[in-house]
Amino acid sequence: MAFIELKNVRKEYEIGDYVIIALDDITISIEKNELVAIVGTSGAGKTTLLNIIGSLDKPTSGEILIENVNIAAMSEYSLASWRAINLGFIFQSFNLISTLTARENIAFPAIAWNYEQEMIVPRVDELLNLVGLQDRSDHLPIQLSAGEQQRVAIARALMNNPPIIIADEPTANLDAKTAILIFDLLIKISEMEDKTMIVATHDEKLMQMARKRFLMDSGKLNEI
User: Fold this and answer.
1) Is 113:142 a contact under the CB 8 Å cutoff?
2) Could you say which DSSP state residue 216 is in?
3) Among 32, 122, 124, 187, which one has the highest count of C-beta atoms within 10 angstroms of its own C-beta?
4) Using N-to-C axis directions, what is the helix angle for 146-158 and 176-192, rounded to 10°?
């Protein structure tokens, strides 16, 4: 049994009299601790697929099995708790809270779920060291470069030590030099923290480093 399995997953959106098929009968399996890259043009369905795997959206039909649990059948209340424990998200737009410092942004997922303070502080320090931002911990997002903001976002995704990291174009809004630094950090994390990492990307280097690579085109997914 694979760690993550999608079975005949379909996602449709109704717009007036039209039905848009965003995901078209997708069946894939992902093993634990694999780094998986999904490539494809804008509008091909990559973000929809990540949202489905990450339980931010539900499929029209099909099953999403994670450790043999069909999360597509879970209630929204159960999913919220499950997501906080099992998933970390990295977005291309960083999505940091503007009024919180880097340290506070990283700690936020644990604070939101009432983790004990004595657990939060050492974990935040560990993550600041991992992403190389010890000397920027008290800065607000506006005081950080784009690359530094993305490193904060990566640390935040790791805060609750989830087994799965989902990254949607994590280097898209970065210059080439900074993108390489973030790319190297993601590879380091996938190896050091034993994470299953699913990344939608146009980064050729990241794609080549992935154990599995998929091409998404018009809602269909094929391994390459």
Assistant:
1) no
2) E
3) 124
4) 20
Rounded Cα distance between 158 and 90, Å, is 10
Tokens of 62: 């099909």
Q: How many CB atoms lie within 10 A of CB 13?
A: 11
HSE-up (13 A, CA, CB side) for residue 165: 30
Q: What is the spatial distance between Cα 111 and Cα 5, in angstroms, rounded to a whole number?
A: 31
Residue 24's pLDDT is: 94
66-100 as b/e: b if 16+ CB within 10 A: beeeebbebeeeebeebbeebbbbbbbebebeeeb
Torsion of CA 52, 53, 59, 61, to 10 degrees: 160
pLDDT in tens, 22-74: 999 999 999 999 999 999 888 889 999 999 999 999 999 999 999 999 999 99
pLDDT of residue 204: 78
- Give the CATH fold of the 31-58+74-213 domain: Rossmann fold (3.40.50)
**Domain edges within the chain:** 31-58+74-213
pTM: 0.91
Lookup: tokens for 67? 């450790």
pLDDT under 50: residue ranges of the chain: none
Q: Give the tokens for residue 214.
A: 């998929």
Side-chain-facing half-sphere of 75: CA atoms under 13 Å? 2
Cβ-contact 178, 185 below 8 angstroms: no
